[in-house]
Amino acid sequence: MDNSIYKAYEDEIQSLEEEIKLLTEKYEDSQQESTFFSDKEILMSIKSLETEFQGESEGRESPSDLKAQLESLERGLSFLMKFTGIQFTSHSKKTVEKTRNRTVQKHRLLGNCHSLSFQLEFQLLEIQNKDKVSAVITDLSIIMESGEDSDMSKFVSSTEERGNLLAFFRSLSCYAEWHEHRRSTFLHFK
């Protein structure tokens, strides 16, 4: 091969390295934007949670109070969706069994996290003893479009066995974010 071909390849390699550097900087900037929320956003979310847990107010609330409360809850939900990347598209709940101190409900959640969609089905067993209510998740089933990723399949299986939804959503958020980055990188080189 002559030097002109080598030069063309070297120029292409250098161009790709510069593009990777720019994309890396852009990614780091977006990470900082998504992980560092302004004090105002954090205070608004805390305030909305405080008003939610203050209990029922006396008498009936006015429509303007209900509207303000709804807007506050919507802002809190928007904040959580930005923070985690998880968006629920559908939820259904069916009461399977209800006694004086025991309730079993079947839940079905559909949603997506970045570009990955998921579906959860589980039963929530609530037992009330005096002033205490305990809840246990049973019969957890997770359906994901994870492709051929065996690590994700293993993780989903272990989560189903343990019934730990918090660990699932935490891991899903991180995995889906990096899955999106890998996908866009591979598309770039095709």
TrEMBL record:
InterPro entries: CENP-P. One of its GO terms (biological process) is CENP-A containing chromatin assembly. The keyword Coiled coil applies. The keyword Lyase does not apply. Keywords: Coiled coil. It holds the Pfam family CENP-P. It comes from the Eukaryota. Residues 6-33 form a coiled coil. GO terms for cellular component: chromosome, centromeric region; nucleus. This is CENPP protein. It comes from Chionis minor. The gene is Cenpp.
